[in-house]
Design brief:
345 residues; mainly alpha; two-stranded antiparallel ribbon
Length: 345
């Protein structure tokens, strides 16, 4: 073989080698760039961002939404490769997903594969009325309003509790929901939670109480809830009302009068309101009112079924959130003069 033939082959081999090196370099660069993409956070610039994946959306659709919103500029190929690597192709769930600061493409695909949809919280506050609850539900973000236009009778029918008065029947707690849930979903869960709580507390009650049913306890608890927000007073106030019931005394509690006034209540009670009879006026009618007057929390329910022992029959607000308790009417009148009329002696 001549020297010219040998030298003629060398440039060709070098070119092939260089091409292979270039391909290898490209593969290495592509791999590192892909790895960088997978671990680089999405361009989330505002709080509470999310992406809504509709049923039937493909990975291509999702990537298009991310690119249109400026959340990711990466090639759709990279997203496809990442989904393949994570065995997520064809396994992405529909739903709304949170886009948090620092979230990477890998995090997002993991959440979509697991169906880890965005949850929001709705809190029912101790002492709310049903009217307060329903008004708050209309303001809840991304909550479908299926029951907003129903009257209370139709509402209770819808949640599977026909014939029940709505007031007091929903347990104050925080309930998680996802986009697509409705106000009726939360009400059903809150109603079930209250029923379960009453069922668990009732057998453990003080058996000497003049309460014939769990519903009686619910009514009393709602009054206790409205009378005080102090944990150290609930059982004591419940004790006052239990003794009055045992002695067939009028309960004489202002929150029931206010509830009975409905829209007529403008922030103050007048003497005429105390003498105007309604089913809820405990200054004119003995016993418990016909329904609860609010949504009592678990502490108030417990207090109503485990009232504090004692001989106090009266209490009056001090003006600082607490109350002064009395055994006799004479003592009570002195406290009223001091704390309500500012005529302390």
């Amino acid at each position: 073989m001549s020297r010219n033939k040998i030298y003629g082959r060398a440039p060709w081999r070098i070119m092939v080698l260089l091409a292979l090196l270039a391909i290898a370099a490209g593969v290495v660069y592509g791999w590192f760039d892909f790895a960088r993409f997978a671990r680089t956070p999405l361009n989330v610039t505002t709080a509470n961002e999310s992406i809504d994946v509709a049923r039937g959306n493909s990975l291509k659709d999702i990537v298009r939404m991310l690119r249109e919103r400026g959340l990711s500029a990466a090639s759709p190929l990279y997203w496809r490769l990442l989904a393949e690597q994570m065995h997520a192709v064809g396994k992405l769930h529909a739903g709304e997903y949170a886009l948090n600061s620092g979230m990477t493409p890998r995090d997002l695909i993991a959440n979509m594969t697991a169906g880890k949809v965005l949850q929001r919280n709705f809190t029912i506050v101790d002492g709310w009325s049903v009217r307060d609850l329903r008004q708050a539900l209309t303001q809840a973000e991304h909550l479908r309003q299926d029951g907003a236009d129903l009257d209370e009778e139709a509402l209770m029918q819808k949640i599977g509790a026909p014939g029940e008065a709505a007031e007091g029947r929903f347990l104050p707690e925080t309930y998680a929901y996802v986009k697509g849930d409705s106000d009726l979903d939360i009400l059903k869960r809150a109603h079930a939670a209250m029923s379960k709580t009453l069922d668990s507390l009732w057998p453990e009650r003080d058996k000497s109480l003049p309460l014939a049913t769990p519903y009686d306890a619910l009514i009393l608890a709602s009054i206790v809830e409205k009378e005080t927000g102090r944990a150290d007073e609930r059982a004591r106030i419940a004790g006052v009302f239990i003794r009055r019931l045992n002695m067939h005394m009028l309960l004489q509690t202002d929150p029931t009068v206010i509830y009975g006034m409905g829209d007529r209540y403008a922030g103050n009670i007048h003497r005429s309101d105390l003498t105007t009879d309604t089913p809820y006026n405990t200054y004119t009618r003995t016993g418990l009112p016909p329904t609860p007057i609010a949504l009592p929390g678990k502490p108030a329910l417990w207090a109503a079924m485990h009232p504090a022992a004692g001989d106090e029959l009266y209490f009056v607000a001090r003006g600082d959130g607490g109350h002064v308790f009395s055994r006799t009417l004479e003592e009570h009148n002195r406290h009223v003069a001091c704390y309500q009329l500012k005529r302390c002696q």
